[in-house]
Amino acid sequence: MAGLLFLVIITMMLGIYFLAGLPALTARDIKGGKKTASMLGQARDALTGRAIQDAGRPGSFACPDIMTNISNNVPNDGIADLLSGNDCPAYAGRLPWRTLDLPDLRDASGERLWYVLSRNFRDDDSAQPINSDTKGTLTVYAQDGVTSLTPPGSEAVAVVFAPGVALGSQVRDANAASCASLGRSIARNLCPDNYLDAANGRNNASSAGPYIAGAQTAAFNDSILVIRARDFMPAVEKLVAKQLRNWLQTYYTTNGYYPYPARYDHCDDENCRGDASACRGRIPSSAASGNAPWLPPSWFVNNQWYREIYYSVGAGYLQSPSGVSCGAGLAVSGASVGAVFFMPGTPVGSIVRPSNRLSDYLEDAENQDGWGAGANDAYVIPTSSLNDRDRVYTLP
Q1: Per-residue pLDDT tens for 15-56?
Q2: Dist CA 201 CA 214 (whole Å)
Q3: How far apart are CA 245 and CA 237, in angstroms?
């Protein structure tokens, strides 16, 4: 998705380049643009791949490689800087290419890539949860400085910049000078102002944005890649779902029943215990009284994945079938199953989650009646073909 957006932006940029009456692009210009696009694509794949595979905090990103020598971190060495307390030392810097197991990526001008991270996606276990509901906090505008490329629900988690050649007053030598974006004097080859450009009231050298993506001009030549939660969270959800399915199957094999769901409206950020009167709800963070222990790993609980996942069990697959209102089994698009859970995808538009409304999580009307009045035990395979959508997982 991010790669497709980038190609669209590049196409628009090339069109504007010609329409502006600038000299025609040469074969060298086009080749350079392709190289830069390739480098940005590699950066995107490495950043999101690391986030997806992070076993301790799925969805988290490495800190940037900061540009000042603090906390024993070496500037511009390609290594993600260590947390300072519970925070990255800075949220804007160079792409940590060594940490991401990448070659020393350079754009067509020979410059290293820059990288900005949304604070709530840092790799710190004590930070706020990262799950399907977590949104980025970075804003990126189109060339006019007014049209948002990251409207509500699509805020950027990270932005990667290819700076291009020095423009205007930018100087990239080792001499120290005042650096406005860092608020201190520093070697000019470590100052973002000498690499990243500003246009229409937006400055890419800012540590927190908002940022701007625009056409190549005599005063602006940054190439930008935007990463949103919807670009990688579906893959994180698949990883979480695979493990959750294994845990539930193991639990059933060991005990002869599935854990009771937690009540959908009695599940907060500290307690989501299974309820022996419930057959529909959320994945429990701990077992109902009388059930065998149900102890998901700490990363699952700490990141509150239990609040994201709708979970339903046929009465015949619970410890005490007589205490619940579900039928003996469930059906998904007509096929009989013992239990089912849904991964929800990221929130769309203005939807605010966590929520007690199933329609805020599941897109098909047949799946939205599983809680409250009129609840039933018939579900359907989600009909959307989008990558970022809810997905159903069945249990025998």
Answers
A1: 333 333 333 433 444 455 789 999 999 999 999 999 999 988
A2: 12
A3: 12
Contact (Cβ atoms closer than 8 angstroms) between residue 303 and residue 58: yes
Dump pLDDT digits (tens) for 129-179. Answer: 999 999 999 999 999 999 999 998 899 999 999 999 999 999 999 999 999
Instruction: Give residue limits of the domains in the chain.
Output: 2-231, 256-395
What number is the average pLDDT over the span 311-337?
Answer: 91
Q: Give the Å distances, CA to CA, from 240 to 117, 119, 177, 205, 299.
A: 23, 22, 48, 36, 10
Q: What is the DSSP letter of 26?
A: P
- Beta strand ranges found along the chain (DSSP E): 92-94, 114-117, 140-141, 156-162, 176-179, 184-187, 198-199, 202-203, 211-212, 223-228, 280-282, 310-313, 330-332, 335-337, 339-343, 378-379, 391-395
Task: Phi first, then psi: give them for residue 34, nearest 5 degrees.
Answer: -65, -40
Order of all β-strands in the sheet with 280-282: 280-282, 310-313, 339-343, 391-395
Q: How far apart are CA 58 and CA 233, in angstroms?
A: 9
Q: What gap in Å lies between CA 384 and CA 390, rounded to an integer?
A: 8
The letter for the amino acid at 174 is A
Distance from C-alpha of 308 to C-alpha of 347, rounded to nearest angstrom: 11
DSSP string of 242-272? HHHHHHHHHHHHHHSSPPPPBPTTS--SS--
Can you name the residues that pair with 106 across neighbouring β-strands?
A: 112
Classify 343 as helix, strand or coil.
Answer: strand
C-alpha 214/C-alpha 197 separation (Å) is 10
**How do strand 378-379 and strand 330-332 relate by DSSP bridges?**
parallel
CA 107, 110, 113: angle at the middle one, nearest 5?
A: 45
Hey, which residues does 16 pair with through a beta bridge?
none
Whether 13 has a pLDDT exceeding 50, the answer reads: no
Alpha helices in the chain (DSSP H): 2-19, 27-53, 229-255, 298-302
CA 15/CA 6 separation, integer angstroms: 14
Say whether pLDDT at 351 is over 80.
Answer: yes
pLDDT tens digits for 49-107? Answer: 999 999 889 999 999 998 666 555 667 788 888 877 888 888 999 999 999 999 999 99
Mean of the per-residue pLDDT values of the chain: 87
